[in-house]
Specification:
The complex is a heterodimer of chains A (127) and B (170). By secondary structure, chain A is α+β, with helices and mostly antiparallel strands. Chain A has one domain. In chain A, 21% of the residues lie in helices and 54% in strands. Chain A is elongated. Chain A starts with a helix and ends with a strand. The longest helix of chain B has 33 residues. The N and C termini of chain B lie far apart (89 Å). With 170 residues, chain B is α+β, with helices and mostly antiparallel strands. Chain B folds into two domains: 62 residues; 97 residues. Classes of the chains: A alpha+beta (127), B alpha+beta (170). Strand 4 of chain A pairs antiparallel with strand 3 of chain B, so a sheet runs across the interface.
């Protein structure tokens, strides 16, 4: 009985996932990526809601989730596409010279993150 | 006796004739209602309306208006350019793809939600000094997916599609 309980505790510690708040913003100016910002921070309180479909990003293990996602940001951007992304575009044509600015933004979203050796599993928690 | 008979027959004829006149008079106001020109004009309008409605429906069929139990798939191709000063071809590809994704998102938003367009022209001494056109798109886009990505000579093209269903809006 004790062995089973210890096993369960051990398993639960291995499978424990932390909750992170992740936001992303990219600014594209004249069809070129101007700036990009990924913000990752641990959630200070437990996120309420239900789990969305999870996605996995493969890559080499790093110290922090922030650095891991920075290294694999292309995969991350492609995987967050099913979620609501806020788009703001402004285009200006002055004397037939065109310039445009597009901002794509993922608002701070709570993810449950399982960090493993060669992949990270992210599950969005829908509010 | 004869006189009374003659009078009575005359009176009956007179009343019959009057009744016919009255009947005719009663019919006369109904005639305009029965005039085809007055009644058919609205009908013609109605027909015109219905025709225009049919045209509208034909247009809407061409525009693929979202109807119940009918999904609309929108496909766009976004373009992005890789910057000049990149460390590697992989980085230029990644950055160009990011720009192309945002461009594809913008095109989807333009198609689904529309564009706000503002124009200003400054004319001085009968000459256009400054002409400015501003367009704005603000939208929240969800469930878009990349179909195909091509990268050639610093230009990345991302084919993106989104499926709109009736239930998402009702």
């Amino acid at each position: 009985m004790l062995y089973k309980l210890l096993n369960l505790l051990l398993l639960s510690t291995f499978l424990s996932a932390d909750q992170y708040i992740i936001s992303y913003r990219s600014v594209i100016k004249n069809s070129m990526l101007y700036s990009e910002k990924l913000s990752v921070s641990k959630s200070m309180k437990e996120c309420a809601g239900y789990y969305d479909k999870a996605f996995i990003i493969f890559g080499t293990k790093t110290d922090t989730l922030n650095s891991f996602l920075q290294n694999n940001i292309t995969d991350f951007v492609e995987n967050i596409m099913p979620y609501y992304l806020e788009l703001k575009n402004s285009e200006k044509t002055q004397n037939l010279i065109n310039s445009n600015l597009t901002t794509l933004r993922l608002e701070p979203t709570c993810f449950e993150v399982q960090i493993n050796d060669n992949f990270v599993k992210l599950t969005r928690i829908k509010q | 006796m004869r006189k009374t008979l003659i009078l009575s027959t005359l009176l009956t004829f007179a009343t019959l004739a009057f009744a016919q006149d009255v009947h005719v008079l009663n019919n006369t106001p109904q005639q305009p209602a029965a005039i085809p020109t007055q009644s058919t004009q609205p009908m013609a309008h109605e027909n015109h309306d219905t025709q225009s409605c049919n045209c509208d429906t034909q247009n809407t069929q061409q525009e693929q208006v979202l109807a119940a139990n009918n999904d609309v798939r929108i496909t766009v191709i976004g373009q992005g350019v890789s910057p000049m000063n990149t460390a590697s071809p992989a980085q230029s590809y990644a950055l160009a793809k990011r720009a192309a994704i945002a461009d594809a998102y913008r095109m989807i938003a333009e198609k689904v939600k529309g564009v706000r367009v503002e124009g200003d022209d400054l004319i001085k001494n009968m000459m256009v000094k400054k002409s400015t056109i501003r367009t704005n798109v603000n939208a929240l886009v969800r469930d878009a997916s990349i179909v195909e990505t091509t990268f050639k000579e610093g230009l990345c093209e991302v084919e993106m599609e989104i499926t709109l269903s009736y239930n998402q809006f009702h």
